Amino acid sequence: MIGRISGRLDWRGPESVLIDVRGVGYIVHVSDRTLRGMPGVGEAVSLYTELLVREDLLQLFGFPTMYEKEWHKLLTTVQGVGAKASMSILGTLGAEGVARAISLGDARAVQSAPGVGPKLAQRVILELKSKAHSVMAAGGGLMDVAEADDAVIEAPAPKRAAKPAGAEQLASQARARAAADALSALANLGYGPGDAAQAVAAAAGDAPEADTAMLIRAALKLLAPKG
């Protein structure tokens, strides 16, 4: 199983890229969002990967972080959501947006992804709402960006210094870590994982730049008994 690919970006297409790893070219399918964040042709690149195996087909799908890869794996457990639909959802919403939409039961957000109809979007919400918290809680430890070291993970080579992540990527990492820490804090206070995930997602939607302490305070207000 190929878990990560690092090498030189040789070609960019509308839905996939070609990465040269020591003379071997790997075609990796990526979302629009991931493609926009990749370097130029000829530069070093690295992606976490998921291998899809069928009788007549082998396809690699690439993700900038393990957090996004875990969401892809979870999305494809839903009946009717294949790899293409999952990449469309992630490309439209991003990993954080997917977490928020599922936690809040926002089927319209999921439906905004190209190729995803209302019935499928509702199924994603229904099947994953009780599972969203598990990936969200792990988010803080899964946000590191894959480092470009010109090696396939099964045959590592000495690493070179990775290019620093962009401002958007760093902000995304910070938000995911804040949400994961807030979820952990609420769990320690005795709140159920589903309720906590919904409250944190709502708080993060209202204040995208909130830090952990702000998310906890906002979530606690949302979880407080009404009346």
Automatic annotation (TrEMBL):
<dbReference type="GO" id="GO:0048476">
    <property type="term" value="C:Holliday junction resolvase complex"/>
</dbReference>
<dbReference type="GO" id="GO:0005524">
    <property type="term" value="F:ATP binding"/>
</dbReference>
<comment type="subunit">
    <text>Homotetramer. Forms an RuvA(8)-RuvB(12)-Holliday junction (HJ) complex. HJ DNA is sandwiched between 2 RuvA tetramers; dsDNA enters through RuvA and exits via RuvB. An RuvB hexamer assembles on each DNA strand where it exits the tetramer. Each RuvB hexamer is contacted by two RuvA subunits (via domain III) on 2 adjacent RuvB subunits; this complex drives branch migration. In the full resolvosome a probable DNA-RuvA(4)-RuvB(12)-RuvC(2) complex forms which resolves the HJ.</text>
</comment>
<dbReference type="InterPro" id="IPR010994">
    <property type="entry name" value="RuvA_2-like"/>
</dbReference>
<keyword id="KW-0238">DNA-binding</keyword>
<dbReference type="InterPro" id="IPR000085">
    <property type="entry name" value="RuvA"/>
</dbReference>
<dbReference type="GO" id="GO:0009379">
    <property type="term" value="C:Holliday junction helicase complex"/>
</dbReference>
<protein>
    <recommendedName>
        <fullName>Holliday junction branch migration complex subunit RuvA</fullName>
    </recommendedName>
</protein>
<feature type="region of interest" description="Domain I">
    <location>
        <begin position="1"/>
        <end position="64"/>
    </location>
</feature>
<dbReference type="Pfam" id="PF14520">
    <property type="entry name" value="HHH_5"/>
</dbReference>
<dbReference type="Pfam" id="PF01330">
    <property type="entry name" value="RuvA_N"/>
</dbReference>
<dbReference type="GO" id="GO:0005737">
    <property type="term" value="C:cytoplasm"/>
</dbReference>
<comment type="similarity">
    <text>Belongs to the RuvA family.</text>
</comment>
<feature type="domain" description="Holliday junction DNA helicase RuvA C-terminal">
    <location>
        <begin position="178"/>
        <end position="224"/>
    </location>
</feature>
<keyword id="KW-0963">Cytoplasm</keyword>
<feature type="region of interest" description="Domain III">
    <location>
        <begin position="174"/>
        <end position="227"/>
    </location>
</feature>
<dbReference type="GO" id="GO:0006281">
    <property type="term" value="P:DNA repair"/>
</dbReference>
<dbReference type="Pfam" id="PF07499">
    <property type="entry name" value="RuvA_C"/>
</dbReference>
<dbReference type="InterPro" id="IPR012340">
    <property type="entry name" value="NA-bd_OB-fold"/>
</dbReference>
<comment type="function">
    <text>The RuvA-RuvB-RuvC complex processes Holliday junction (HJ) DNA during genetic recombination and DNA repair, while the RuvA-RuvB complex plays an important role in the rescue of blocked DNA replication forks via replication fork reversal (RFR). RuvA specifically binds to HJ cruciform DNA, conferring on it an open structure. The RuvB hexamer acts as an ATP-dependent pump, pulling dsDNA into and through the RuvAB complex. HJ branch migration allows RuvC to scan DNA until it finds its consensus sequence, where it cleaves and resolves the cruciform DNA.</text>
</comment>
<keyword id="KW-0227">DNA damage</keyword>
<dbReference type="GO" id="GO:0000400">
    <property type="term" value="F:four-way junction DNA binding"/>
</dbReference>
<feature type="domain" description="DNA helicase Holliday junction RuvA type">
    <location>
        <begin position="1"/>
        <end position="62"/>
    </location>
</feature>
<dbReference type="GO" id="GO:0006310">
    <property type="term" value="P:DNA recombination"/>
</dbReference>
<keyword id="KW-0234">DNA repair</keyword>
<dbReference type="InterPro" id="IPR013849">
    <property type="entry name" value="DNA_helicase_Holl-junc_RuvA_I"/>
</dbReference>
<dbReference type="GO" id="GO:0009378">
    <property type="term" value="F:four-way junction helicase activity"/>
</dbReference>
<keyword id="KW-0233">DNA recombination</keyword>
<dbReference type="InterPro" id="IPR011114">
    <property type="entry name" value="RuvA_C"/>
</dbReference>
<dbReference type="InterPro" id="IPR036267">
    <property type="entry name" value="RuvA_C_sf"/>
</dbReference>
